[in-house]
Fold this sequence. Notes:
By secondary structure, the chain is an all-alpha fold. It has helices at about 10-35, 35-65, 70-85, 105-110, 115-130, 135-160, 170-200, 200-210, 215-240, 250-275, 280-285, 290-315, 330-345, 355-360, 365-380, 400-410, 420-440, and strands at about 380-385, 390-395. A two-stranded antiparallel sheet has the order 1-2.
Amino acid sequence: MWADRPIAGRPFMPRAFHRLVRLILITVTEFHLNALSVRSGAITYTVLLSLVPILAMSTAVVKGFGGGDHLHEAAYSYILSLEGRYRNQLTEGPSGESFGLPPATAPAADANLTGHLRSAVDQLFDYVERTDFAAIGTFGLVGILLSVVLVLGSIESAMNTIWKVAAGRSLGRKLADYLTLLILMPLSINITFAASAFLQNPTLASHIDVLIPPAWLQTLLLKALPVVMITFTLYVMYIFFPNTRVGNRPAMLGALLAAVVWFSVQNIYVNLQIGVAGYNAIYGSFATVPLFLVWIYLGWVFILAGAQLAFAVQTLDRHRLLPLAATPSLQLAAAFDIMDCLYRLFSQNRKLTPAHLIELLPDYPPQVVTETVTVLRTAGLVHLSRSDDRLLPGISREHYRPEEVVVRVLGTQALSTAGGKMSSAAIEAAMKASERLSEKQKGPG
């Protein structure tokens, strides 16, 4: 395939075009192969099941830091940013706080999509406000934590699928990492609102007028602020959730594109729905549910697409659009390289995880490396530590015999036919050849 062929030494423009085509093809094909549209629907379902517990815990954390109803305000601010306009005069929300649109325009807003989104947000936070952690007891609190772990675990599973990671975090690491995330993310929202209040300070506004005189540029910067915050949030997700190392540049590029596309498409979606009151005539008060579902689903489609783009950027130079067939010879070569890499890093007291191993062996398709590690683990040559996902040698270097790898990969069973005898002879020859080569590499003494 043309996109898989190296074009080193070509002029800049052909090379740039080649890389762009590869980037697009990798993103699109992997998005389809990983069934990310289906996974987006699955995550949407789990999010809906656990939305109130997650918001209840996050709200409790924010209030613990003196943040008040900042999560509620964040949801309203995002909806207002979709409409493309912020208003200074806000109508009172369900609990007396100042949220939403002016009273004169609030009834009209109920007929469009943003009105339904506000209604959904109000109902959600109404349930959140009525959550009493003292009343639900220990078992109820454990149930809330499990529902949160369910959502975050489904997100991690999708990210690991995108990044070709076979093993996820251990349960202990999941609980520790997820609890950390539940504390840090609401705290970041609290800091964001403090920064927003600082930016709206009249004294600072006068300085901004001096530094940036054009009013249109100030408006553009304010409108770009939601995109910047979404980009930062997605960047943290792309770095945190995959059980592998993700580069800063791929994660940032994927997050930026996902945020821009997500914000733009949902803005268009909102504008197309404004004034279309026919849906209310069909669905009535139930119209909030399908519109809210579509809104969440589209968000997850773009989030996972951004993660897939980050994968394409990071593996652009080594990813094969037409993967090599997992032939026995390829798997045998991978097995030898895996054992060599394992013993080398173990002697250097360096940690080797399955994801890191894939990075160290870029010439092999990730699935070949993963399948070969499974074969070696079954043979007892490789051990996977469940505590820290580290790969360890199953036997010492002194007792390691390459011919055993040949046996485990190629097998020894053969029929007593002419073909079976030839197969046995070929395997025996391969075992002897690997033993001689190993002795030669060790050298004398």
